[in-house]
Hints:
mainly alpha, 5 helices, elongated
Amino acid sequence: MTMSRExxxxxxxxxxxxxxxxxxxCYLGPLVFWPMLGxxxxxxxLAQHVREGFALFAAEVAAWLALILVDTTLGxxxxxxxxxxxxxxxxxxxxxxVLSITGFFRALAGETWHVPGLEELAxxxxxxxxxxxxxx
Length: 136
């Protein structure tokens, strides 16, 4: 009795290779603008990954700006400031890396994925599908 792993999306195996790669690119920071602005035809599945990738990128930028503020204030304290800054940089960097890698590979597998904690922000990003899911 063999068990096969089914993708989260029922149509995951039907996605084109190009669409999967475009969805995966959405999780590589500023490269999210390529599928967001450069693609004329975008399925609802790809639009969802564009929204999730952009929300992740916006959260990363906000976190790095907050870290700059922490560095210029608490970072001036000789030992404690350095340790706090180092720990915050590691936490933000590793979190961003893990979420980006997870989104990248989930999209490449044709699965639908929501970035934990950013679902509401992603739903507010105005990226719409420009083509129907069903193709003749």
